[in-house]
BTB domain-containing protein
Amino acid sequence: MGGKMLGPMQSASLLGLILMLPFSLGTRRSYNPTTATNAEFGMTRMILASMNYTWTVSSFSVMMDRMETGQYVESSKFSPPDAKTHKFCLKLYPKGETEDIKEYVSLYLNYQDGWSDSVNIDLRFRLLNEQGQPFNDGMSFKNWEVKKNNGVGWRKYARQDWIKDRTNQALSSLDQITILLEFTVYIGYNMDSGQCRTVLREPPAERMSSDMYLFLDNAKYSDMTLVVKGIEMRAHKFVLAARSPTLNTLLDEAEQSMRMSHPVITIDDIDPRVMNEVLRYIYTGEIRTLEIRTRELLHAANELELVGLKEMCERQLCLNIRMDNAYDMLRLSVKYKADGLRLRSAKFIAAHFGEMSRMPSLLWQQIHNTGCISSALYVN
């Protein structure tokens, strides 16, 4: 209050002194786009996503005999876990794609849909024998560019007479051929050069699953607790309710009976390690221990009504049916109402019944399961 006002010359000198002082600029965490500077920038990001996909085609020798050249069968659409907006499928021509190769089978991986006009792909096709094991080195492409609605593969993948020869293991005793696709997709995109307000661009959908997993067991925003055999796991009501009808019902009951804003649900029939994987699936759609904990995950999927996870478990079990576990697989399929596994197990047993009858350790199982096998063969 008692200080002197600075004159014009003094103000100018002070301003000059301030402008000469060194500054340490902090990182701005947000800004108003309307006041963005005109600084130019550019950025390229590359998404790398890998997966294996197994496709079994039934009645394949019949297809090779009866289908016309140029006719094809197509797999379901699938996406790598880290590139879920990009859809692919396999396309198989049992009698060749064109007349000049009608003695061959043609096989392609097609890029069906996605926000990128083209992707680069590494891929390898391998054939699996009846035990679900690869028996050839396969054929591969490296860093092949594929445009949307186009494919990459082989016009002459394999000769039909080679596939029909049972000694080559390509056709199973059930007249099925099983193809294993191992592939990696490289998806690159540029963030447009321009003013820095484009930094606010929303990240692509492929990051959604990994971002969602960050919220799992996060106490900051969780609004419910699962107690799994005494182990507490934090979660979010809206995620669990949306993904699992069983958990949705339990949440409703807990909130109505206890009148709690933070409900607690107790689960005693699922192992905590398995429940951790189930929560990963619920939040991200991914599963990392499917081959190790298939049966435990099938039990959990059945209890929590997770249809997608149950189908994944069924497919994994179907790949591992053998003479020494076929009856066990059949009982498992009946217990969990897994019709796909039930039919596959029953057909396997029917195809190997004579050979299995000569195995004393399996004789009592045949007698015990005869009715179950007969009924399973009529499952559609």
Summary: The longest strand covers residues 177-194. Residues 1-6, 8-41, 190-206, 376-380 have pLDDT under 50 and may be disordered.
